[in-house]
Structures are given as structure tokens and as C-alpha cells.
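sanity check this:
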Amino acid sequence: MDTRPIDVMLEELGLGRPGCRHVLLVDDEFEVLTVLEALLEDEWEVHTALGGADAITILESEAEIDLVITDQRMPGMTGVELLAVIAERWPDMYRIVLTAYTDVDPIVGAINEGSVDRFVLKPWDPTAIREQVAQGLAEREHRLAMQRVAQTLSERHQAMNRTLSSLRDAQKRAGAEEHLAVLDWMSSGLTTELDTLLGSLGNSIEGLDLSQTSQEVAAAAGAAGDTLSRVHTMLADMQRLDGGATTTETRQDTDIRKLISEAVRQLIDEDLGNNNPVHVQIEPNVGPVSVSPSSVRLAILGLLRNATRASPADTPITVRVRREDGGLTAIEVADKGEGMTPEVLQQASRPFFSAFDPPGNGLGLAICHMVAQAHGGRLAILDNPPSGVLAQLWIGPDPGPASTEAAS
């Protein structure tokens, strides 16, 4: 709890102290109202009401009333009953009741219940009344000042939370983009040299006369060939990253159907041998989506390749695209394979992890995960009963230029 004086807190927050000077007098006797008004009007703004109902009407139309002084004995509504209504509807207003000595007990009860701040016994002293009004208005100012401080601190706390949330989202995207940048660097700096080296090794293996070797040598040569195939596939992924300029490409409104078609064509060119038709379903409300086209195309290709390897030959792969609340776009790829165990599901998007036999290069889902993060989204790999896996690539809305509103 902050124990500093309220004036210091107001100053530090750049807030002015609220000025309270509006007093409402309530009595069913006009003469009493006239005397009280004459006593207070030289220093404060005074309003008068002939009874409780009239007072409530004034309060509902006058937003500036700070303090109420009411007589206790009034027809229709007593002073305590009036102040109980005011305490419920305008709790920060200061409340004083004028009463005879014989009515003290109900007044004390009202004070204990919180509906009355102070009572004044009749006959009242003019000087004492003025002092009590001044003290009551000062208390009203303190209540409003505390309320203003609390509201301002709450608003600034919310703004800080929004800023931190934006920074966390930006950090996630930056982390994904940094990983993509590493892959870009690898592809641009190493693919040509590795491709040449692997080509030479592949020619050497193909030139071996395995019929004249032991079973161990033949098995080693076969394993080396499988490894070369995996590395060649990995290099192809890296070259696609390099060609897509994933770290410099800006988001732009893109037809998702076009990206899916291009990814399917690349999949056909790879000729994985399964001959799986791709069925595309795009909901009518999905228009152009703001994405980095090359990286999202590569992510879709990775999901299609995994679905093809997981599915039996000639069984269809389904691609669905839909919009969600909050501007999210979901690209879903469903296969008809055997599915994944819980252990495999947990590791599926880790770089270089593959559960296929023979194993793949393990980059497909890792790249999809980074592309999703770079777009403010996520990758989800789910069981899809009765068979197969459902991969969901979520794309977040384009955050646009960095905003300084929250920080200001």
C-alpha cells in the first residue's frame, strides 16, 4: 500500500486535485432552507430541495453535488432513508443529517451501516455548521482524489500489460525470424559446395560393384545412399528458403489458394510416388491473407510432404482454410495415415526429428513452426480420428507498423 500523501501522488501522476464546492440542502420547511442557504452561499455553490424525492431528482440531473445536508424528520422519506439511497447510488458524496436528540439512536445505526458520515444535533450552531461543511468537502475531495489516482494507476497498469504483451509477441516473431535467418545463411553459403560434394560421393557409391563385396560393405553402402538422399532433400528445402528470401520478404495480401496450388505443383515435381490427390476446401469468408508468400508456401509444402509420406497410396489429402475470431487464419492439412503416438506428437516440430521409415530430414515441421511464429501464429499437430493427423498452421493478423500508443 502506498502511504505517500495523496497530493504527492497526484503531482507525480500529473493529476490536479478535484475541487469540491457544491452543497445540496434538503428540508421540507422552506424557511429552514433559506436560513441554511444564506449561511453557506457566500463560500460554496448551494442547491436546495424540499424533501427527499425532490433531492433525488436534483441529484440525477446535477452531476456536481459533493455534499448533502438533510433534515431527519421529513414526510414521505426521512433523512436517513434519503442518505441510504445516496450512499448506494453516489457513494463518494459526503452525507450529513440534522436531527433532534430524541432521534439519535437511528442516526447512530445509520452511521454504523455506512449511509451517514456525520450527524448534527438541533439547534445547530452556524459556525459549527460551516466548519463541518468545510471538513466534509475536504473529505469528499480526498475520496475523489484517491479514486482518480486508483483509476489512473489501473489504466497505466493495463497499458503496461498491453506493451509487455506486444513485446512478447514481437520477441516470439523475432526469434522465429532469427531461426529462419540462420537457415537462409546455411542455404546461401553451403548448398552449392555440399551439393557438389554429395554428387561426387553419390557417383562413387553408384560405381561400386557391390556383388564383389561383403554383406557388411553392401549394407554400409546402402545406408550411405539413404543418407545422401536425405541430405539432398534437406538441401532442396534450404534452397527454397534461400530463393524465398524469407527474412526480408514483407507481408502482403495474398491469395491462399494460389500458394496452395504452387505448393502442390512443387510436391508433384518431387514425385514421392504415392499419387495422393489433394482436395482443397476454402471457406467463402476467406479473402486475401496478409502473409510473407514464400515462407508460407514453403510451410504448406512441408505439411503436404508429411501428409503424403504418412498416407497410403492413392488416398486423398485434405487442405482446409478458414477464418477465426481475432483475425486468425487456419490452414489445415489432414492425412489418412496411421497417426502419431503421444511421444512423437511432442517431438514432431523439433528440428531434425523424423519418425518416418526411412527417416526424413526433420526440417519440414520445424520450418512450419518458425513460419507460424514469425506470422504471430502457431503450429498444432493433432490426432485426427479415426485415422491420420491434422496439422494446423495458424497465421495471425498483420500487426502493421510498430505502435507507440501503449508506451506513451
